[in-house]
Design brief:
Blueprint lengths: L1 H13 L1 E11 L7 E2 L5 E6 L4 H17 L9 H7 L6 E7 L2 E4 L2 H5 L5 H10 L5 H4 L5 E9 L7 H24 L36 E13 L5 E5 L4 E6 L15 E4 L3 E8 L2 E8 L6 H18 L7 E3 L5 E5 L21 E5 L9 E4 L12 H16 L4 E4 L2 E4 L5 E4 L2 E4 L10 H11 L4 H6 L24
Parallel strand pairs: 1-6, 13-19
Antiparallel strand pairs: 1-2, 1-3, 4-5, 4-6, 7-8, 7-9, 7-14, 9-11, 10-11, 11-12, 12-15, 14-15, 16-18, 17-20, 18-19
Length: 482
């Protein structure tokens, strides 16, 4: 019996690795770090977790703690994206108050290294503190050093920084080979040159050599909408004339297929490009002229705008649709005529009606995920995806099976908030937009959806479709707790 108990204890001991960490920050140009007013935190990982994935999670956790500390505000999102890029953080083993050892990414974290192999190698190389090495449960105590980047004021400054960055890295690499497996005599890693800013994988920033983005100002009136608890949609048209700025020349970069000079991207039927409203950047959405007329553009944009509002459930503060400050704009002035068939279109706006949306968050710590398709029901295996699938089920039940939200996709931010965007809907009447496949799509959802633990916790698995058609036009917006 004793050997069985010992074996169980050994298996339990080896099943997880605790990581304790504190944060210190180098101000730009400083040679000494400052300890941040954030308490020491602990994250527990399974021994089978990839070390690289675990350290990415550590960076996300650190970013969340940093963002939730009011006294640390002041840096731009771009600077924070760079500072919390997990590749650029220096992870150091705390040995004593005067000694740390830096964990080299290629040596210790590169795949297929797991948390178990990382811990064993750190122990083998005598990188662990005596306290960690003798702990009953595998534990790693880290100090994460953050580097505040400088945002260059002009092209020349950035070119100098880039050249310094290359040359210094070479010397630092050589030095690390000479000191391999030796303990550092200092309490913090060497101050490195400022890293280059992260370039988002789905919305590239402008290069240092790109010309300054120019805008054209238009006069317009706004339209917003409100949704009642019975899902009645009311469009509200303002009589106040306002101004909006639209990027010039963005159409010239559509064929290249990459975000550049005001062009942000495109879908099957729409373009997205840059604008400014009330001194804030925003995204402008319009249908493509080859796929829609002026009237069809209005119908599609208003349909998508109303679907965004119908999809919002206020009881989910960590899952939001990208509708804050969104509106439909309509010009009060006449647009120039479209060019001839073989002539390039250089107009900033294609139609007189457009949709204005907040820019989606981007950066190294934001992750874009597609949870379901236009016709494909979401069957996500992970916990977060299961929560979104349960949300889709809730909307179906909430509307008494008259509405299904589809094509659900979103951005997962560092604080684990999901910002959803660009939804489609299928309604019993089939009139929410060109994408709406009516009752056939609703029936497919009911047949294909598989209830998960979140559905069962909410009691959604006990709900049955009504016997009669209620002809409801949207969700009732019943609370998750009702």
């Amino acid at each position: 019996m004793k050997w069985k108990v010992s074996l169980l204890k050994a298996n339990a001991w080896a099943a997880k690795v605790d990581v304790d960490f504190t944060l210190q920050q180098y101000a730009y140009g400083s040679s000494k770090p400052t300890k941040l007013a954030i308490p020491s935190s602990q994250v527990t990982f399974a021994t089978v977790d990839l070390a690289s994935s675990a350290f990415k999670q550590l960076a996300l956790k650190a970013r969340g703690l940093y963002d939730n500390t009011p006294t640390l505000s002041g840096l731009s999102n771009t600077a924070l994206d760079v500072m919390f890029d997990w590749h650029r953080i220096k992870y150091c083993m705390v040995l004593t108050n005067a000694t740390v050892n830096m964990i080299e990414e290629q040596k210790y974290l590169a795949a297929p290294a797991t948390m178990e192999t990382l811990y064993r190698k750190l122990r083998q190389d005598r990188m662990l503190s005596d306290k960690d090495a003798s702990a009953k449960t595998p534990r790693i105590t880290l100090c994460m050093f953050l580097y505040v980047p400088e945002e260059p004021e002009d092209d020349d400054v950035q070119e100098v920084q880039q050249s310094q960055c290359v040359s210094t890295r070479k010397s630092t690499t050589a030095s690390s080979h000479r000191q391999k497996r030796k303990r550092s005599p200092t309490a913090s890693p060497e101050r490195l040159p400022p890293p280059m800013r992260y370039q988002s994988s789905y919305r590239s920033r402008q290069s240092a050599t790109a010309p300054i983005l120019e805008y054209k100002t238009f006069k317009m009136k706004r339209a917003t909408c409100t949704v009642s608890k019975t899902a009645d949609i009311q469009m509200n048209y303002s009589e106040e004339q306002e101004e909006i700025m639209i990027a010039k020349g963005w159409q010239a970069h559509v064929k290249a297929g990459k975000p550049y000079q005001g062009y942000l991207g495109q879908g099957l039927t729409k373009f997205v490009f840059c604008g400014r409203y009330n001194n804030k950047d925003c995204a402008i959405v319009q249908c493509k002229s080859v796929r829609a007329t002026e009237a069809e553009n209005i119908v599609d944009l208003e349909g998508e705008y109303q679907t965004l509002h119908l999809s919002q459930v206020d009881d989910l503060p960590r899952m939001k649709w990208n509708i804050s400050t969104a509106f439909i704009g309509k010009l009060t002035e006449k647009l120039p005529d479209a060019p001839g068939k073989d002539e390039p279109d250089s107009r900033s706006l294609i139609f007189s009606v457009f949709m204005v949306l907040p820019l989606l968050p981007s950066g190294a710590l934001c992750r874009e995920v597609k949870f379901s398709g236009s016709k494909e029901v979401g069957l996500n295996p992970d916990s977060l995806g299961c929560a979104v699938d349960a949300y889709a089920h809730h909307i179906a039940v909430d509307s008494m099976y008259e509405v299904v939200i589809s094509d659900i996709q979103g951005i997962i931010t560092p604080d684990c908030t999901i910002i959803l965007f660009d939804p489609q809907s299928h309604m019993a009447q089939g009139d929410s937009g060109y994408w709406d496949h009516g009752r056939s799509a609703i029936t497919k959802f009911l047949k294909s959806h598989k209830c998960n633990k979140h559905c069962r916790a909410l009691g959604l698995d006990t709900e049955l479709p009504p016997l009669s058609n209620t002809n409801r036009k949207g969700p009732l917006h019943i609370s998750f707790e009702d």
